[in-house]
Hints:
503 residues; mainly alpha; 3-stranded mixed β-sheet
Amino acid sequence: xxxxxxxxxxxxxxxxxxxxxxxxxxxxxxxxxxxxxxxxxxxxxxxxxxxxxxxxxxxxxxxxxxxxxxxxxxxxxxxxxxxxxxxxxxxxxxxxxxxxxxxxxxxxxxxxxxxxxxxxxxxxxxxxxxxxxxxxxxxxxxxxxxxxxxxxxxxxxxxxxxxxxxxxxxxxxxxxxxxxxxxxxxxxxxxxxxxxxxxxxxxxxxxxxxxxxxxxxxxxxxxxxxxxxxxxxxxxxxxxxxxxxxxxxxxxxxxxxxxxxxxxxxxxxxxxxxxxxxxxxxxxxxxxxxxxxxxxxxxxxxxxxxxxxxxxxxxxxxxxxxxxxxxxxxxxxxxxxxxxxxxxxxxxxxxxxxxxxxxxxxxxxxxxxxxxxxxxxxxxxxxxxxxxxxxxxxxxxxxxxxxxxxxxxxxxxxxxxxxxxxxxxxxxxxxxxxxxxxxxxxxxxxxxxxxxxxxxxxxxxxxxxxxxxxxxxxxxxxxxxxxxxxxxxxxxxxxxxxxxxxx
Length: 503
């Protein structure tokens, strides 16, 4: 067989396994959007059965044979072929080292864990949820052990979401960020303007859901999201899943917090735009899959924060906003609106946090996750540890577990090591934004005209179409000319919020 024929067969088999994985994602989306409560156990069984089929496809011995043939011809491979082989080898080795019964067990547990979390959160019952979390932690450690990461289980979880990322590298970046961010947060929160911003945000009440839905759809479409290849629905916790041909986003609505649904939707749209920008013909290979969750989060955070919280963005969209909500916006002038959009106030809830304090919530989770994996912290002691860490970092202590350790969905299906990607994504977004501003100083003038095409095109060319040829950290270095650093995020926050609160 020629090298091209071997590569083509490898791609076909890899893409079949990927397609089965997308069916699992669709089941997960339906589970959080449409599933009747009484069908939870059946859905767990469906997840388990499909995971077993997908695992069999991903561990097909023929994939191993094709990889061996291509690796023996490494000198003849193009850079793209080498990337395909390296990514396929990583996935194949992972699939063949995980026993099929473990894969089935973990998939079923993930589905049951979601429903256990939803019940526990509603009832504020961490005690009832703790055994599920203990099981998820045990499964995560077993998975790491199967794959040769014994003793480095948390490194495995980070690497799983962001290839090449380590605990040590993350600790270094977060330590540098915390050093500069904490005093900035304290200065902003103590500013008299902070109270004015909170007062402005408090005026935004009574916004009908249907009009909110209309506005956020118009906004997300203007940013470039293709609704012919995606949709947005409602779930308990906003998320984005699927691939570029079928992106499923969700948000949630509150008549007295209209900016929550809007910014959640813009955040998920950033994820959706990334998926829609990946080469469809290469889905499932290194050329058609994202560069890791930190890069994925950078896309969502850049659109949500650098773009949608800018004055230029609101110069364009404010007239339409007032047209849809004339009564609700009558008592809010443009400067008050901008303050409300960029209000800074410590909160117990991560998804409600402003972009200045948000990263402190991630540092909290990162530090607790490490302790869970080393055994320094037992699951039963999480609520107390969470409260102490929240008091130290955020300045607030939860009165209930619902607003503390039970607030996030991630651990319910064993997604440990994912949280750091949010903070790393913020760092990447700020570093990319600095690069964008150098290349196109008038980019915010584009926003004021409602034109987001240049920015989307820049992201498509530099990031989306690159797939996973490079890791997130490598891609940042190639695009910006320097390693990832928190200094760009701190500089961005000082520029926007320093001018607003401390100037």
